[in-house]
Amino acid sequence: MSSEELLGRVVEVLVTVIEAVGAAVIFIGAVWTAGRFVVDGVRHRDAGVFTPIRLSLGRFLTLGLEFQLAADILRTAVSPSFGQLGRLAAIATIRTALNYFLRREIDREQRQLGADPPGPAPAGRR
């Protein structure tokens, strides 16, 4: 086995591990967020309670997408073809756009939380 073949196999194993970590982060975030949604939904009826839950899910999604992008970059690190580079560019563009809009949403909601903390509304604002 040549050194290039060995490197290719090592990279494929690493790509698989990194993709699995990214998928696990997204899955764990979705399960954890669903659990919080159910528990807080039973305890509280105020929509403001759910904003921090949405922010948490957004953070999990952002982190998971970063792992997936890292795997895609690593996949094309060894002797990439023009087709692979084009695919990577398309995937990177889509995932970067998703991360950008997720980050914007998270920042906007965090600012709203700072101005209007979650929980039951004060008596004058119902």
Domain count, please report it: 1
**Helix content class:** over 70%
Mean pLDDT score = 83
What is the radius of gyration? 20 Å
Give the helix/strand class.
mainly alpha
The low-pLDDT segments are 117-126
Q: Per the principal axes of the C-alpha atoms, what is the gross shape?
A: elongated
Element string (H = helix, E = strand):
HHH
Number of H/I helices: 3
The total beta strand count reads 0
Distance N to C terminus = 71 Å
Largest pleated sheet: none
**Which range does the strand content fall in?**
under 5%
List the helices and strands and how they pair.
Layout: H1 3-43, H2 50-75, H3 82-115
Helix pairs in contact: 1-2, 2-3
What features would you describe in this structure?
The protein has 126 residues and is mainly alpha-helical. It has one domain. Helices cover 80% and strands 0% of the residues. The protein contains 3 helices and no strands. The chain has helices at 3-43, 50-75, 82-115. Helix 1 (3-43) packs antiparallel against helix 2 (50-75) and helix 2 (50-75) runs antiparallel to helix 3. The longest helix has 41 residues, at 3-43. 9% of the residues are buried. Residues 117-126 have low confidence and may be disordered.
